[in-house]
Design goal:
Largest sheet: 2 strands, antiparallel
Oligomer: single chain
Shape: globular
Distance between the termini: 41 Å
Length: 445
């Protein structure tokens, strides 16, 4: 049997897994949800879910990957044959996510380049983003197809280089830079006149807006943000060496994920609140690609620099997450077709290009509008996001909790975490969560 690739160190795994967790979900989705669902009330809810549900599901997937040394397609079936289809279901999530993630990544690259070119005022107009994604603009640089192709190629190059020389090294550079950029922008945004009011709006709980919808939104964000129920953490876990303390590494990933999401809120909400008020936080795409460019344009000369740094940080977040999605697809394809990484990377790259074209055309040629069960209007990208994030991920987590909690037993995971006599301080909490709490809540979801 061919030896499986592996991360060279614990910090390499932590940064790669954190790179997967810290992505557009943190920088693009989290601030919008926090602003919509009561600021501090949403923050408190999310943190509580992260240290309970997030910890439980992530440690399960990483430990499962390391113990089986398999990607999700074979890992579930190796535990129990009846649950083999669950591996294929989990493998479906990256297939759905990859195309639209590449499209959004292309948008980020486009805006970064425009701020570098000094076109911040142009992209801050109310109609620019709509014209861009609907391909109403003229010229090759105004075509979203060009930008997602660039993003796909960047992602494919990192994955092609392999686990240690590609995924690990890229994450080891981009994650520290991302954190530094996030801290820098956050500090600057807090110095803006009136930022204190925006910070208050973000941090102080408004329980008048708190409801079951807040909990559901925070839970949905948890799946998206921490790369849960996608097969990603199982795949990354299969690359982890036996001497790594999984409990400690898992805690560090949680800190990275929640910390960057928190910083993203500080970067975005106070400044948008200062310049545009609450109305500036209309929706996820509008917040990032309409409201924020308007904020940067309002800052004068320094706005160009802030815009460049912000979209660079957002680009790193998008790239590290998309690398994890594509790496999981490549690993799954290597197990299915028994082909080389190079061949499967080419296959996945072609798939991403072809399907992402369809997503791009969803704003013009294939445009439609329908209302999702949560009441929001949706186009093709939104539908794919809703199917994966609001339905499949909770369903996969429900079946995973039944498998681990009641079929193989929580002790199976606990034994893997404590393999090297490492103390698993939250073992009792883990058992209760996996057997009773997770199944019930996932069934409700």
């Amino acid at each position: 049997m061919k030896e499986r690739s592996s991360f060279t160190s614990r910090i390499g795994f932590v940064l790669a897994a954190a790179g997967s967790a810290v992505g557009l979900g943190n920088m693009w989705r989290f601030p919008y949800l926090a602003a919509k669902y009561g600021g501090g009330a949403f923050l408190i809810t999310y943190v509580l879910l992260a240290v309970t549900f997030g910890f439980t599901l992530m440690i399960t997937e990483v430990a499962m990957g390391r113990r089986t040394r398999m990607s999700c397609i074979e890992a579930f079936g190796s535990l129990n044959r009846r649950f083999a289809p669950l591996g294929w279901l989990a493998a479906l999530i990256p297939v759905i996510i990859a195309p639209y993630y590449c499209v959004i990544g292309g948008w980020v690259v486009k805006y970064f380049v425009e701020f570098v070119r000094g076109n911040g005022m142009a992209v801050s107009s109310d109609t620019y983003f709509g014209d861009f994604i609907s391909m109403a603009g003229s010229g090759i640089l105004e075509n979203p197809l060009l930008w997602f192709v660039i993003f796909v190629l960047l992602t494919a190059v990192v994955v092609l280089l392999g686990v240690d020389t590609g995924v690990e090294k890229a994450s080891s550079v981009m994650m520290p830079v991302l954190v530094l950029l996030s801290v820098g922008i956050s500090v600057y945004c807090m110095t803006l006149p009136g930022a204190a009011e925006g910070l208050k709006y973000y941090l102080l709980p408004d329980f008048a807006d708190f409801s079951l919808t807040t909990v559901l939104a925070a839970m949905g964000q948890l799946f998206y943000s921490m790369s849960l129920a996608m097969g990603i953490m199982i795949t990354y876990g299969s690359y982890v060496k036996d001497d790594v303390d999984l409990n400690k590494a898992n805690g560090q990933i949680e800190i990275f994920d929640t910390g960057v999401a928190f910083l993203a809120g500080i970067m975005i909400i106070p400044s948008v609140y200062v310049f545009l008020g609450v109305d500036g936080m209309a929706s996820r795409p509008s917040l990032t690609f309409i409201s924020l460019p308007r904020v940067f344009a309002s800052m004068g000369g320094v706005g160009r620099i802030v815009g460049i740094v912000f979209f660079l940080a957002l680009g790193f977040a998008a790239l590290t997450s998309c690398v994890s999605v594509m790496e999981t697809l490549v690993a799954n394809c290597m197990e299915i077709f028994h082909k080389s990484r190079k061949e499967m990377c080419a296959l996945v790259g072609i798939y991403s290009l072809v399907t992402a074209v369809t997503i791009c055309l969803g704003y013009n040629v294939f445009y439609f509008e329908l209302t999702l069960p949560n009441g929001s209007a949706a186009q093709l990208l939104d539908v794919m996001d809703y199917i994966s994030n609001s339905f499949l991920m909770p369903f996969i987590s429900l079946l995973t909790s039944i498998l681990v909690g009641w079929v193989v037993g929580p002790k199976w995971i606990i034994a893997e975490v404590e393999k090297n006599d490492e103390h698993f301080g939250r073992a009792k909490l883990y058992s209760v969560m996996m057997k009773y709490v997770v199944p019930v809540v996932m069934l409700i979801l």
